[in-house]
Write a structure and sequence with these properties.
The protein has about 90 residues and is mostly beta strands. Strands 6-5-4-3-2-1-7 form a seven-stranded antiparallel beta sheet, with helices on one face. The longest helix is centred in the middle third of the chain and has 8 residues. The radius of gyration is 13 Å and the shape is globular.
């Protein structure tokens, strides 16, 4: 059985009081870094509370939108995300 490689991407905002982490295949991450569009729902945590967010990738940038119009991250270059390689 082949080993699948993944990455965890983490973004921080609000003086690092807010964060969200998603898991993607290494292949998908390479496509995103090359400018591909991709969307993924996730949870975020801000000052101890959990909120729904959507990660929106495109043109080498990421925007993370939250509930009720909250904008957590806007047009952040994807190379500024915290990237942790993992294997499964």
């Amino acid at each position: 059985m082949a080993v699948k490689n993944f990455v965890e991407l983490t973004a921080y905002w609000g003086n690092d009081d807010g964060d969200s982490t998603i898991k993607l295949s290494a292949k998908k991450w390479n496509e995103i870094r090359a400018g591909a569009q991709f969307e993924k729902d996730a949870w975020s945590y801000y000052e101890g509370q959990r909120f729904r967010v959507v990660w929106l990738f495109g043109s080498g940038q990421v925007t993370i939108d939250g509930e009720d119009g909250m904008q957590c991250v806007v047009n952040l270059p994807v190379d500024e995300l915290m990237v942790t390689p993992i294997s499964k």
